[in-house]
Amino acid sequence: MSVTGINLAWAATANLDTWSLISHASGVVIGVMSLLALMSVIGWYIIGYKYFFLKRAMSESEEFQDAFWRSRDIEAIYKHAQHLNRSPLSHMFVAGYSELAKLQKSRSSDRDGDLENVERSLLKAQVKEVTRLEANVSFLATTGSAAPFIGLFGTVWGIMNSFRSIGAMKSASVQTVAPGIAEALIATAIGLVAAIPAVMAYNYFVRRIRVLSSEMETFSKDFLNIVRRHFLK
Fold first, then answer.
1. Could you report how far apart the first and last alpha carbons of the chain are, in Å?
2. Is this prediction's pTM over 0.70?
3. Which residues lie closer than 8 Å to 196 by C-beta, 6 or more apart?
4. Of 34, 37, 42, 221, which one has the greatest count of Cβ atoms within 10 A?
């Protein structure tokens, strides 16, 4: 290969460097890449935060259940539950216990009505806890479904620029087409980088939340049975 050919090949390679392609991309493609990068950063923050949040919620729920079934002193269970801030079960217990304490002070004779009040209090706490567990998880689902299409939009726009270059220069050489195609593929790649972890994390978190929701439903039934047998006679 001649020296001129080597220089041209080197120049073409330099122009197709990833950072060079990003910095010299069209405004629309840069906007698409920036949006996808922002979605990826936010998604990774949510993944990290939610992972440790749910891990602690599950460990504290296990700790609460051990204390709840081992201890016969409901006051001691109540005090212990107040220290388990991440456990949805402890929050449900605190809500149910508080309602039960109010009913015992009022000394109501309506047993069925009192039980319904406790059940309503547990259900309200359960809905609140499920909402807290699901917070920000929907962003991961949005990123997983939207990011590939946003990247595809950048791809289409880059290919359109390539065809404009071909029309303007009346040439279909590699030097004419390659930059636009390359920047388009980078947009697609960033979209996939943002989407794939988001989808995997979303499915993982949904499974964890489903397990905690099932435990909350079971605990609600167990707590109502205990209240029915021992407190609302």
1. 97
2. yes
3. 144
4. 42
